[in-house]
Fold this sequence. Notes:
Elements: H1 5-52, H2 57-78, H3 80-108, H4 118-146, H5 148-178, H6 185-223, H7 229-239, H8 245-261, H9 266-292, H10 300-341, H11 344-359
Helix pairs in contact: 1-2, 1-5, 1-10, 2-5, 3-4, 3-7, 6-7, 6-9, 6-10, 7-8, 8-9
Amino acid sequence: MALPIRDQLKYWGVAAAVFLVALWFLGDVLVPFLLGGAIAYFLDPVADKLESMGCSRALATLLITIVAILTFVLVALLVIPTLVNQTASLIETAPQLFKNFTNFLTERFPALLDEGSTLRTSLNSIGATIQERGGQLLETALSSFASIINVLLLFVVVPVVSVYLLLDWDRMIASIDRLLPRDHAPVIRDLAKDIDATLSSFVRGMGTVCLILGSYYAIALMFVGLQFGLVVGFVAGILTFIPYLGALIGGALAIGLALFQFWGDWVSIGLVAGIFGLGQVIEGNVLTPKLVGSSVGLHPVWLILALAVFGTLFGFVGMLVAVPLAAAIGVLARFAVDQYQQSLLYRGTDRHEHAEADDA
């Protein structure tokens, strides 16, 4: 006999409350484990593919680990030092860049910057803030990442957790499946498959899109000689996770820097703008349709809302779980709508009576 709906809601409500309390109190501790789980989830299809080619799960995990280590070492030697140096230089030169921007407006649009004008007051306020806080921001970021505990958690715990979870992923999923309530197991499996399809299409697909576009932007901007091109490409690549945001912010930042660096050289400025224009064409017509699909059930507005809400409530760990939870809530909402449309509340008693008459 199945549990009454009221008791089921009570148990599921308690489980959700325990999950949220754990996020609230153990957020910082859970970060490396969530990152490790995300990496294992991302790489599980690769391990499954290697298994289908005849490798054991242990050998597949070993091969993936070796490739990951070599990739990390290569990136650490070639990319990270340049990225850190360009980021530090950008923060240090931000006040001077802002001053140059103000002078640029003063020379070409003097009417906008009359003494006492709102725009001039706002620009002076922003410039003072950048001057005061720019150095503090850099020092805070460096000190945070330099702490021994964070380094150990991120560079030791995350890889270890990833390897163990990747090795035992299929067994872990099978164990969870055996613990499902028998009365609801088929429905839960179907919902889990829908959530996995939505999440994998978006996370794995958009993760690959972000990596490809970020690399393209960084290499192309550095090739045309734009200062801080690697930083701009890195930022644009990460923000591509939210549709259109990466191109808008990255393009505005790159074109703004290009105007200062290449003023008068309209060919170089046009090349910078063209890089982002071409990137949008490639993303919209090739990368996203091929790697993500036309519809994965995660609307950009819903994704931004989830990131904002969970990030505000639970900090960085909230942002890590925002996308999976957004996918799960979206699937559950569609399931609830489907159940509602099949209910008497939606269909009405007349149709129900007609259906009973037809059955009779």
